[in-house]
Structures are given as C-alpha cells and as structure tokens.
Amino acid sequence: MMKKPRDLGHNISMIDLFDLGVAERTGTYVLHEEELAIIETGPSPSVPYLLKGLEALQIDPADIRYIIVTHIHLDHAGGAGVLLEKCPNALVVVHPKGKRHLADPSRLIQGAKAVYGEKFDQLFSPVVPIPEDRLIVKEDGDTLTLGSERTLTFLDTPGHSNHHFSIYDSRSRGVFTGDTIGVFYPQLLKDGLEYCLPSTSPNQFRPEAMLQSAERLEQLQPERIYFGHFGMLENPRAAFEQLRFWLPKFVEAGEKAIANMPGASMQEKAESVFRKLYEEVSAFLQERNISPTSEAYDIIRLDLQVCSMGIVDYLQKR
C-alpha cells in the first residue's frame, strides 16, 4: 500500500499517511532545508507510513528539527508523540491553545471517542503525551526560519478549531491551511474537478470565524494551498470560492433540521443534517458528470457525517 512520496516542487515532498486506511486522505509535508521540518503527522497508526516515506526520501528521523502541527485534532497531530520517540532532535511546534493538550491528551482522547466511538482505537491509538520541554508555541505573526530561502509565518486561523494556525511559506508562496478552508478531494481531479468542502467537525466550529480566517489567508494572495486533507492546489481561488458557496448551505441544512426536530437527540439531528448535505453534494457532483461510483463519495460521506455533528453542536450552543 506504500506510495512513493510526491515531489511538489519548492523543496517540498508529500507523504501519503493512509489515514483511515485509505490513500489520498491525509498527508505529511516534508520541507527540505538546512533545518529539516515536517508539517502534520497524522494519527499514530499512520506513523509507520510516515517513517517509510522518510526512508524513501533518504531522511534519517534524527535529522528532523521541527514537527509542526496546524492543530491538535488527532488526524493531524495524534501521531506526534509516537513519532517524537523516533526523532530525538526534534521539537513539536503547536498553537498556544494546543500545547497543554499535547502534553496531556486526555481531553483530546475523550473528544475523539465522543465522535468516533468504538472505532477510536483502530483509528487513533495510542496517543502518547509529549514532554513539555519538547513543545514550542508559535503566536500569531511569529516566524520560523528553516533556511536562507525559507521562512514560515504562523497565522492564528480559528473557525475549524480554536487551536489552529495556518502557515505561510515564503519559498513556495503557499499556505499550509490544515482544515481552515476545508478538505480538497484530489480523487476528482481526473474528472476535471477541483473540489473542496468546508470542515465543520465538533466541537469548536464557528462559521463566522472560519470565513474571517479564509479572508485573511486570501489577502496574502497565495499561489498554492497545501491542505491537511489532501494535497496541493495551485488554484487557491477555487478553494476560497467553494468555502463561501458551501459554508452557508451547511449551516442552513443544520438550522432546518433543528427547527423540524425540537425533541430529537443530537445524533438524530446530525443524521438529518447529514442526509440533507449528502443529497446536495451528490446532486452537485452528478450535475458535473461525476460517476456515482467515484471513490470520492466514500470519503465525502465520512466527512459529511463528522461535519454534521459539528454543525448541530454549533447550533445548539449558539
């Protein structure tokens, strides 16, 4: 199942982490500089794929200086503790609001179990605490210079979560966006479609903040976007436009479901939101001649189930 790391240009490689056991779901970006850095680790079950990818790139894990996570959700940072054991010289770079949860992941684990239930162990276990002295935080506007041609600038971008930064890269003039502006589905590129959907998972989703963060990133006029899920898009405008198109529809689907189901449980409401969203997304794709058998539907279905929980959670707190 191992795929060769992909060369994305600008001294960046991407390793497919086979998160959830599927290809083209979550990636680690390797920044080849004097100070070697990676962005995102994926969950712990993905770390063997990450290490194999480093081996294919002829990188010794001992040479990695920085392991950067855009936010602390387990599909992005859950493997950091396990990986760190193999990277004796690395520090983990995290958002200020994420640091204590990497040092003590008990609440992270509890939150993920609430969403993923009995699948938790298979998808995320083990989640290993990171020693405080191996963690460094980057505040809004802070920088990290990796080489003479590459400085990273960290930007606080809430909306998907409160502990999320995006990273502007001076060398590629690109932005590593984590989940801030959504998920990109490269499976649809062969059908000629550059397709993104918002990522509204529980429990800190805030649509207004998400749009403000996207606007802030758009003002940087990036030339490319590096998504947590999955890969590089050299048409950033498509991503920003689709976020603005879909996000109100996501919230509206939630509002309708909640209005019509006053006595229903959170799970029943989320299922109703999911059905509505899946119907809209499927219709959109079929209008663009995407075959109903496209492999993208499996991942989209899973994403929309989690997104629906986040939408209901947001509306119930509002």
From TrEMBL:
<protein>
    <submittedName>
        <fullName>Glyoxylase-like metal-dependent hydrolase (Beta-lactamase superfamily II)</fullName>
    </submittedName>
</protein>
<dbReference type="Pfam" id="PF00753">
    <property type="entry name" value="Lactamase_B"/>
</dbReference>
<keyword id="KW-0378">Hydrolase</keyword>
<dbReference type="InterPro" id="IPR050855">
    <property type="entry name" value="NDM-1-like"/>
</dbReference>
<dbReference type="InterPro" id="IPR037482">
    <property type="entry name" value="ST1585_MBL-fold"/>
</dbReference>
<dbReference type="InterPro" id="IPR001279">
    <property type="entry name" value="Metallo-B-lactamas"/>
</dbReference>
<dbReference type="GO" id="GO:0016787">
    <property type="term" value="F:hydrolase activity"/>
</dbReference>
<feature type="domain" description="Metallo-beta-lactamase">
    <location>
        <begin position="24"/>
        <end position="229"/>
    </location>
</feature>
<dbReference type="InterPro" id="IPR036866">
    <property type="entry name" value="RibonucZ/Hydroxyglut_hydro"/>
</dbReference>
